[in-house]
Amino acid sequence: MNSSNYVSTAWNTPFIAQRADPYILHEGDSFYFTASVPAYDRIVLRKADTLEGLRNAPEKEIWHRHASGVMSWHIWAPEIHYLQGKWYIYFAAGERDDVWEIRPWVLVCEGQDPLNDPWREAGKVQCADPFTFVDFSLDMTVFETGGSLYCVWAEKVSVGKKISNLYIARMKDPLTLETPQMLLTTPSYAWERHGFWVNEGPAFLEGEDRVFLTFSASDTGPAYCMGLLWAEKDADLMDISAWHKLNHPVFQTDEAKGLYGPGHNSFFTDEEGKTCMAYHARPYDEILGDPLYDPNRHCYIMDVQWKDGMPVLDYMNQRFQ
Amino acid sequence: MNSSNYVSTAWNTPFIAQRADPYILHEGDSFYFTASVPAYDRIVLRKADTLEGLRNAPEKEIWHRHASGVMSWHIWAPEIHYLQGKWYIYFAAGERDDVWEIRPWVLVCEGQDPLNDPWREAGKVQCADPFTFVDFSLDMTVFETGGSLYCVWAEKVSVGKKISNLYIARMKDPLTLETPQMLLTTPSYAWERHGFWVNEGPAFLEGEDRVFLTFSASDTGPAYCMGLLWAEKDADLMDISAWHKLNHPVFQTDEAKGLYGPGHNSFFTDEEGKTCMAYHARPYDEILGDPLYDPNRHCYIMDVQWKDGMPVLDYMNQRFQ
User: Is B232 a catalytic residue?
Assistant: First the structure.
């Protein structure tokens, strides 16, 4: 461990070690897992019949970074989606000669078997305004709700030290935004402004009467935490007045449990249809060097509880210890 | 008139002609008026014993643009405030060699007579984060409420074609921001995105139980209109969740009345303590050339009505026809 203060607890044994930005999909009778790998050089995929099976499922590299140019550096946060009969992977990537020139890109599977069929590069999602994907942008997620497909992503604004915001647009299809962007959230509270002013890593969750977007905030050390936006399910999600933002984090470091900087999560259902969350955290806080290149952001899994129609995220509901 | 379609109506006779971004202050027993002049080269001030007296009060130039460097071009939207025993003017200015390098600046009066005492340049308001006044920024207003002083201004973000947002910060004193910026509003609706994506020209208004900020939206032609934010008076105004934005404009072009692109307003009270609004509009919509250099944005005045605790802005309440 790259740290002086790692303490093993009942909670901080990883579900899958050294996989950050974990994304789990339960599609048909199978579970799929992808994530950022520490070398940031490839996209990997696992498949299993059970959620727990992902833990030791073989990991297949389905795409490797280019030698130069776009998609050649910082391969981050892939998500796999099955949309309108096809498999898609959304991911972010920089350039070897300009490593912070991060943009979101898409892969499309040429068949129905995402582990074994070839993946084709489909370029960027096409946008509908001059403000989208023009600066450092990443963490694209897509979701269907109320009969429409939506895209949410993080993008930085301002000059010099920048601010990472989250934007939403309705999609015409999985490769095309139908509407201009709408700003969903910008860091407004101290817990979103530690080190850097960051909102990133959006994850969609549908509840009984409401829809939710969690996001991750602050720099990627122990201050990293998760915030929550919600809207009524029957609201127009492209009307910003439909969205409400909690003024406090909903999930954060717990020193007693030895879990630091939790975030960049995804939601899925288990075999019984129960809502679960995959997220990453570190089992220590004293990071040697740049937190971005510390490999020990591990994947953890917990049950999502519900109270008064709102999701409850609590380390006590952690699985697979 | 620079137009083919000017029609005189009962409503479009100016209160004061060719003065845009009108700012009226009722302080003590006097009324003060300042505004942008068509040449954008100076700051002017009028004083009168009555509101109507401003109409024909002599206009004094109290400051002139520099020959070069900062504060040498596009002298825009001055506001005069009497704060903590001193007179201040907040205004925006560009540079002759870089005319869009617009930033907010401050003048402080060295005495108690703002028309006759000398004004000193006090530089910029000092900010408390690395994101403030780093890009095209203007339309600074200040207000005191609940025992605190606040600053609201417009600033652009993004690259290439930019987006103008409104930000708020609490102030330590009239020359110093105490807190980092908080984003108040960004253009999210079609009525804020005509031509350019713009929120600008904030104006503060205190009601019975609520406080309000109006702002102007879209490009400065006939689509220019006003939106509204409100918060409960006892809320923490530096918590973004306290602010609510209406999803429709509250004041806009009325062709039948011959008033186009109303906005960039200010609120004040008349001799009887009734709330009034000064705003600019054009008496025609077919502008020849760049709307920014069309001189006929005139100052109009109306009574503000109240309904269910919210301000009502209606041309029927126009004064001084």
Answer: no
